[in-house]
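Dear support,

I submitted the protein below through the web form. The confirmation email said the job was done, but the results page showed an empty box. After a refresh the structure appeared. I'm attaching both so you can tell me whether what I see now is the final result or a partial one.
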Amino acid sequence: MPNKALIFFALSCVAAACSSSSSPPLGTPDGGVADASAADANVADSTSTDGGSDGDLRSLCAHWYDARTDWFVRCGVPKRSDTRATALREKSVDYCVVLAQAPGNQSKGGLEACAKKYEASKQCSEEPCTTPPGSRAGDEPCRDDSQCKSLVCNREFGNTCGVCDNTVGQGQKCDELSCDPGLTCDDTNVCVPAVEGDVGEACGNSGCKWFLYCGKDKKCAQAPEGEGTACPGGFCFFGFNCGEDSKCHAFSYVGVGAACGVTKECEGGECGDDGKCVGPASDGAACGGTNGPCDVGSSCVSGKCAKENPSACN
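What the results page shows now:
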């Protein structure tokens, strides 16, 4: 089954708590394709007719981004500075346009419906939208997970392109291959429907739903929130981080050069080895080190940051 960090676009980092875009598995922090019906619902959306010209697509991407960002803020994620928020929005919308037009990606037609789901959502326990599987079969070229039927693009770090993962269906052996989206490999190495437990329910064969954790009693519990609350699962709800003292602590975003840690997250780039925020590297600059990671919509290719171009992988 795809990683629970899979969401509607490979852009979740941009709206929530992480900051670099180096083609993670469709992004983090991170809802998931909890079951086949969730993915199918978005595939159905993708057959709609919204999103014609690039201008229309940009408007749809902007609506989606704003709706999703607002949802994270309503759920407790701190806001970034106006300067970083503006730059992040521009880069994210640019990348949304590029990704929605990538061969195999099936998300384009569902952007408007997805934005409305975020706007209407009254809960924070699960992402309102999930990533619809792409149309590219196993071993076909890809740049991003969302291009693949398996929702997994096997691409080595630094390479421009990879190939879509080969998967098997329900009832088939999964000792060598992964299962299709919505399935999980059981103890007998057979693909079965993935089950994720809700609050108070027994932990499923795929654990628990997003922002729940499997407790010692093998039941799903809500991720803790509130300053000083114990975090036995190692993580906390939106707006909090689990510290070395195993307690939740509220965090805020800080800029380049500021001290960073459990209560201070970098609004762009990453927390360096010296405990200070390193800004994201510009396109053309060397990746990592004192330059920081590549920014949203770019990734490290041959040692330098370059804009993502999934359409180049054919």
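Response: this is the final, complete result; the empty box was a page-load delay. Confidence is low (pLDDT under 50) at residues 1-52.
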